[in-house]
Amino acid sequence: MSGFPYELAFATLLAATGVAGIVLAAYAGHGHPQRRATRPLVVALVVAVAAWSAGVLFMTLRPGTGTGQLVNLAPLTFQGPASVIDAVLNVGVFVPLGVLLAAARLRLLPTLLSGLLLSAGIELSQYLAQVGRTADINDVITNTTGTVLGWGLGAAIVHIRRRVDG
User: Fold this and answer.
1) Mean per-residue pLDDT, 75-98
2) Strand, coil or helix: what is 93?
């Protein structure tokens, strides 16, 4: 259950939810800052977050091919260029979540905690399920970083849209 078609579908889903997040952040920035989110915006955000979550959970909880260590608790240690690339990709995977949470008008701290807890839950599940994946503290750090960077992007879009409309 691995291979290029799944990776391509996952990348497409991430790109689509990222673009949806940017569009929704621009829409969320329209109008008065205290105005409640419209029903279509809420529905679109829920659908986009659900699609992103399904894709991430599928890719991270499916069986892996790893036969190495079960857990890595050494933060910010990378073994070669491949693990650095993996770290950068992990940041990118969680950027759409941050953008979507900014569009939902979540503040930074709840967004940070959402990324942290979701990532920690994924890593804990990988450890408990023992499906050939390494539960890695670096993944928690990079995923949380991606969530925060995405939130910053989304919050900037909301702010700019409010200034343009203002």
Assistant:
1) 90
2) helix
